[in-house]
Design goal:
about 230 residues; alpha/beta; Cobalt-precorrin-4 Transmethylase, domain 1; Methyltransferase, Cobalt-precorrin-4 Transmethylase, Domain 2; 2 domains; 5-stranded mixed beta sheet; 3-stranded parallel beta sheet; 8 strands
């Protein structure tokens, strides 16, 4: 399980063991082929990418396990690489790991950045009880209903609720949050984590309503605690 930088090119966020294994492994399942090749080249400038075999996966396609079966049968090590962050955490990869467990194949998760965990660490919200909810519904009234339900659950259980959105919809999600959440609910906005212009800010919804907030088209993690 091979993490990649959350902010492209920031290889300092990766553990040394990631550099070690990516210099050895020649067979990969990857979320995005172009990103995987770019990351490997960034970590190992002299690496011969033509000698590496890739199988591309996504959140929506059926995974082809045949290459994995063949590689494991040959006694080879296989890497699973996310496009950004940690594979299997809000990214594809879990099905391959589940297959490995069913077939008694050793699984080794390597240390690296996760925007979800980094956002929670920097939020000041409850890190003892939290849930990642992925993407909220796009259309009304389900979107507002979902926000209010998550806020109610957060209040009842003191559980931090974490979710993400496509970058060009960040502003609309922010507006929906401050429209539907109670003024005392704390909202954290973690933008472009690990980038030079990264920003993590937590205020009550009441204070957010008084602020002028601009969103660049960058990854943002939203967290609330009622």
């Amino acid at each position: 399980m091979i993490p990649t930088p959350v902010y492209e090119g920031n290889y300092s966020t990766l553990a040394q063991e990631v550099f070690h294994y990516t210099g050895l492994i020649k067979h990969f399942y990857v979320e995005n082929l172009r990103t995987a090749r770019r990351v490997l080249r960034g970590m190992h400038p002299q690496l011969d990418l033509n000698a590496i075999q890739f199988v591309e996966i996504s959140k929506h396609d059926t995974i082809d396990f045949q290459p994995l079966q063949q590689w494991i049968h040959e006694g080879l090590s296989v890497g699973i690489m996310s496009e950004a962050g940690c594979p299997g955490i809000a990214d594809p990869g879990a099905e391959i790991v589940a297959y490995a467990h069913r077939n008694n194949i050793k699984v080794i998760p390597l240390s690296g950045p996760s925007s979800i965990i980094l956002a929670l660490m920097g939020s000041g919200l409850n890190g003892q009880n939290f849930a990642f909810r992925g993407y909220l519904p796009l259309k009304e009234p389900k979107r507002s209903q979902s926000i209010r339900q998550l806020e109610h659950y957060s209040r009842e259980h003191q559980q931090t609720q974490i979710f993400i959105e496509t970058p060009y919809r960040n502003s609309s999600l922010f507006q929906d949050l401050i429209k539907n959440c109670h003024p005392s609910t704390r909202l954290c906005i973690a933008q472009n984590i690990s980038a030079p212009d990264a920003s993590i800010q937590t205020y009550s919804v009441e204070i957010w309503k008084k602020k002028s907030v601009e969103f660049a088209k960058v990854p943002v993690v939203f967290l609330i605690l009622a």
